[in-house]
Amino acid sequence: MKPPLLYAPQMERPEPEEDETIAGLEGALHEIMATTARDEGHALRSVHAKAHGFVTARLTVLPGLAPELAQGLFATPGDHPALLRLSTNPGDILDDSVTLPRGASLKVMDVKGDRLDGSEGDSTQDFLMVNAPAFGARTARQFLGNLQLLAKTTDRAEWAKKALSAVLRTAEKALEAVGTESATLKTLGGAPSVHPLGETYYTQTAFRHGDHVAKYALVPVSESLTRHAGEEIPVAGRPDAIRETVDRDTRAAPMEWELRVQLCRDPETMPIEDATVRWDEDESPFLPVARLRAEPQPSWSPARNAEVDDRLRFSPWTGLAAHQPLGAINRVRKRTYEASARFRAEVNGCPIHEPTSAELSP
User: Fold this and answer.
1) Taking CA 39 as the corner, what is the angle to CA 35 and CA 41, rounded to the nearest 5 degrees?
2) What is the CB neighbour count within 10 angstroms for residue 209?
3) pLDDT of residue 307
């Protein structure tokens, strides 16, 4: 196995006209948020608007890590309060029969160290992940095109989205039966209605890992979670089937995940700028650096939803300088995520802040 690469600023290669792309992304996200705020009478997140559960937990950084793993947040063993938010990716609140990829946002608290620009004064570290190892757009311009399409389909007839989702699920299962799959079909509504607690989640994009470069994954390891791997939730006639199922199962038993790191070992086969490339796990396996543990608890209520979704933001740019987001997709996220948080704060009249405790209402 090749040694992990040392981080250097020249690893990033900004795209031409990246500022124009960012302006386009801000416009597309604003269109989504303005539409949903008009319909709901309340501002929602521009993506991953529908939460399916909130889990309070503790993240334990493992002792005895190898030097290349003991970096940034993971340099010092110990416990941190943490909050896990489970979601799906559209910017509008849809019936769960429109089946889409799952998301997991992890906010770790009481994190000390030099901060990223715009995150000064905070003590949190965010990890934003989805249940697929590779991103759906190769360039920031392609990412913009995908979001512009999403903006145009926000607030279109939900009955049509349900019908389309059923067709796309059938097409995706046909592809999987012959050993392939389509990220596009899944993103448009063809994803299987998998149980969020059984899924592995990936950052997809690269980050500094202190002196190195890495991607991260959150992997279920306790039997209370792994038993749901690949499980599909019946959603017909149940608009909030996922919330109901997750809430039932988070109450049943303690839960445990591993947070793992995949170090970049080859700039050609593990590119930073092209997030559509899945880094080969034979070339660089995901290695555990921390454990996320949660006691049995309710995971969804209107009160919890208001506490997290009105008051908090999740951003890859909230955290330590040692975990700086890298690559085009991450660079264009910075200003767009900031604009999304400002819009919600202004419309809802509720300031966005970073928490110091993971405690939530029942």
Assistant:
1) 110
2) 26
3) 92
The residues with which 127 forms a beta bridge, in sequence order, are: 106
Residue 259 contacts residue 216 (beta carbons within 8 Å)? yes
The CA distance from 209 to 178, in Å, is 37
* Distance in angstroms (rounded) separating the CA atoms of residues 161 and 167: 10
Phi then psi for residue 193, to 5 deg, are -85, 65
pLDDT in the model for residue 46: 84
Q: Which helix (H) or strand (E) is 52 found in, with range?
A: strand 51-61
* Residues pairing with 325 in the sheet: 207
**What pTM did the predictor assign?**
0.90
CA gap 213, 207 in Å, rounded: 6
- The series of mean pLDDT values per 10 residues for the chain, 362 residues long, is 96 90 91 88 90 97 98 98 94 82 96 95 96 92 82 54 40 42 46 93 98 98 98 92 97 98 97 96 98 97 92 96 97 93 94 88 78
Q: Which residues contact 328 (CB under 8 A, 6 or more apart)?
A: 14, 15, 18, 139, 140, 143, 273, 275
CA 93 to chain centre: 17
Which amino acid is present at 153? T
The pLDDT of residue 356: 87
Structural domains present in the chain = 9-125+142-348 (2.40.180.10)
Q: What angle do CA 235, 48, 43 make, to 5 degrees?
A: 110
Instruction: Give the whole-angstrom CA distance, residue 95 versus residue 199.
Output: 20
> Could you tell me if 293 and 255 are in contact, meaning their C-beta atoms sit under 8 angstroms apart?
yes
Beta bridge partners of 105: 85, 128
Alpha-carbon distance of 193 to 101, in angstroms, equals 8
Spatial CA neighbour of 311 closest among 360, 351, 357: 351
The pLDDT value given to residue 155: 57
Rounded distance, CA 110 to CA 115, Å?
A: 13
Check residue 347 and give its pLDDT. Answer: 94
